[in-house]
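Handover notes (outgoing to incoming on-call)

Open items:
1. Protein kinase domain-containing protein: sequence verified, structure written out, both below. Nothing else pending on this one.
2. Nothing else urgent.
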Amino acid sequence: MRKLVSLIILIILGLFPNCKGAPSLSPSLNDDVLGLIVFKADIKDPNGKLASWNEDDDSPCNWGGIKCNPRSNRVSELNLDGFSLSGKLGRGLLQLQALRKLSLSKNNLTGSLSPALVRLPNLRILDLSENGFSGVLPVDYFRQCGPLRTVNLANNKFSGQIPDSLSSCVGISVLNLSANQFSGALPAGIWGLQGLRSLDLSYNLLSHEIPKGMDGLANLRTINLSGNRLTGRIPPEIGGCSLLKSLDFSGNLFSGNLPKSLLNLSFIGYLSLGDNSFVGQVPEWIGGLKGLENLDLSANNFSGLLPASVGKLRSLKVLNVSMNSLSGSLPESMASCLSLQIIDFRQNLLTGDLPKWIFKVALQEILLSENKFGGTMDDSLASAEEASHQSLEVLDLSHNVLTGAIPSALVNFSSLAFLNLSKNSLTGPIPRYFGELRALNVLDLSENKLNGNIPTEIGKATALQELILEKNFIEGIIPTSIEHCSSLSVLILSHNSLEGPIPLALSKLADLQIVDLSSNDLSGSMPKQLANLQHLVSFNVSHNNLQGELPGGFFNTINPSAVSANPSLCGSATKKSCSTVLPKPIVLNPNSTGDAFSGSSLPATFGQKKNLLSISSLIAIGAAAVIVIGVIAITVLNLRVRASASRSAAALALSNGDDFSNSPSTDANSGKLVIFSGEPDFSTGTHALLNKDCELGRGGFGAVYRTVLQNGRPVAIKKLTVSSLVKSQEDFEREVKKLGKIRHPNLVTLEGYYWTQSLQLLIYEFISGGSLHKHLHEGGGGNFLSWNDRFNVIVGMAKGLSHLHQLNVIHYNLKSSNILIDSSGEPKVGDFGLARLLPMLDRYILSSKIQSALGYMAPEFACRTVKITEKCDVYGFGVLLLEVVTGKRPVEYMEDDVIVLCDMVRGALEEGKVEECIDERLQGRFPAEEAIPVMKLGLICTSQVPSNRPDMTEVVNILELIRCPSQEDSG
Ligand SMILES: *[C@@H]1O[C@H](CO)[C@@H](O)[C@H](O)[C@H]1NC(C)=O
Ligand SMILES: *[C@@H]1O[C@H](CO)[C@@H](O)[C@H](O)[C@H]1NC(C)=O
Ligand SMILES: *[C@@H]1O[C@H](CO)[C@@H](O)[C@H](O)[C@H]1NC(C)=O
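Protein kinase domain-containing protein structure tokens:
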């Protein structure tokens, strides 16, 4: 079976398990293959990661992302992490009854989760993290939990309360619901999960106090409740979770003191309580948490001294007590914390000299800014240990009250990347050695009392990205050596006493983004080359003595305040025009260059246009000719002109069709009439009259008239309006003859034709019931098609088209006005194959002929590179199908909106509201288990990519599968 058809059948089977007719197929299919193919059909796989999933295989065990149990050959694991899949989980996965692990992490899957998923009898690991799943999990979602051990729904969009039924998952050991929008209180049931080892509920919207009973989690190793809105105190029961290694309650609204029972957590290594409202002293007992490696108490209201017992934390690597109200000096005992790597004491009220121990321990980061540390840096730096010289990367002593010079000992810190000594009272010159600190990225010495020059050696600091020296007393020039600081992106030298010109060197620093040289004594003109700096965001030179013209480029649009207060600077932003006369711009006249550009591109375009024009004008001319002819009467042998038609003019005699034994002969050679079926009445003479009164309709290829043969039998006659494009008589007759041989109960029979050079008529059987369009959209009263009628119409159309395609005839012009309904309700597809009469299957002609059929036209008509195949009919059929089911036109024009039917149905399906699309006249009177698969089929038929559409034979098969036997019997 071809891949697509079985795929679609499977989708539909998966969709209507209630329909008893369908599962007769399934015994031959492996349940796992079926489930996986249905799953695959429901999702998008843009990177083709599931390409190896072929439903023709007997076993899925070699497919990508799949592991089977070697004994049972059933799928035991599905690992599709990071496959870039999107769409929704359909019901396919529910077939995988032996599945133990389902891991779909890091995709773009959306929609809600079926409770049946957690009921899979063998599922142990469910990892759906990092997707776009959403919805509320009902309170009893986990009621039948099965053997689940790991549930990871992190990083999705789930909302509502965490279902209390989680307590039924007694085997659960890892629960991760982090980074969703779960709200409300923590369900107390969680505390009953005795096997729980890891609980991550961080970054949700959980509120209220932590419920009682937490000490039930005797096996808990990790708990993360950070980033919620939890209130109250930390329950002392926490001490009962005696195996805890990691506790993160940061970023909540917890308050009060820390409970001493924390001391029972003898394995605790990671304790993060930052960003809450805890008060009081940092407790002395904290020194008892011997295994602590990471302690974060930042952003609370802790006050008083940091207890000396902290010195007992020999394993401590990271200590963060920033943003509290700690006072006094740091305990010397911390010199024993030999594992320390990072200390963060920023934003406290700490006093005293810089502690010596901070340069004895091999710290990587020392963050002491915004305190009240005083004295000079000399002492503590001079006694720094070699280990510290190697390790220190970040030193932030800013915003304290340090005095004295910047000590020369800093040069020894060879790994230093970030040095911020700003906002102190440092004096003396800027040391020359900063150029030696090859790792230095950021040097901020601003807002001190430094004097002297910017040392030329700064040019050696090739890694320097930010040089910030503002608000000091620095004098002299900006050294040209700065051009070697090739990484520089931020240069702030404002509020100093720099003089001399802005060096050309700056224009060589290609990464410069922010430059502030304001409030100095800089003079001279600005180098024009500064205009070449591509990444500039701001360049402030206000309050200097610069003169001359602004460099242009970036400076043409610079904020005027950035160049203000330079009395002799001119250019647009300064609101002062420069005195020099600008050369007149050369203005080219685009019109005069026409000849000069007479290369290949222009004429080619023109040529194409002409071509298009000639084709469309041909069509226009063709149409005009028809209008001129106006009302035509044809008289066929022995005609008896009816009085009412006597105003009609041209009487045409018809000649004998030599090829056809039954064809009538005529007295003149002016035209040729051929009747395939050899109807005696026709040959004995009848009269057909084509006038407006008998017009049945007009289509892309011509108008259709009803007329009556002499024996009283009505026929429909189509007058082709494309006559000027029609092939030679020979070709025309050959094609028409082919079309005439096509007989099918669901196709309108072509009974004959009439040919002259200027006029061609096609003679069809007459169908009395009117068009589908009329039935759907012009019915008016209560006489609408029932569901069964509609299903019959859909099936009939499909059968008719399928027959056409088997004969290699493409219809090209499907629309509801071309589908006729006969007196017994059977649909007949008309107007097929007419494009064959044109000299070539020109897309332009086709699409312009068919544009009246707006909304039915397959997208490939607009795309020259895609071959047009019979799949364009499948598209049109899909639209027709949706039209029949919804009762809506393919394109509806609302007041200020255009609604495209298939987009609307597709959208409704995605939102799970597809039933609302079904014709409201049918509401309550259709079987959903038929209607929904039918609509899905319609959507598949209207796939943008032709190869994704099924072929019509498949469609017929699928439709027969969809129809529930019960419906068929009763209907
Ligand atoms: C999800 O889709 C977005 C665009 O829709 C894409 O940028 C992103 O890479 C996708 N993520 C994954 C994990 O495939
Ligand atoms: C929870 O899942 C998220 C996303 O996959 C992950 O970043 C986080 O580390 C997990 N939590 C735990 C405790 O493993
Ligand atoms: C070029 O021709 C256009 C149209 O003829 C005219 O509007 C326009 O002013 C001409 N431009 C110049 C520069 O002469």
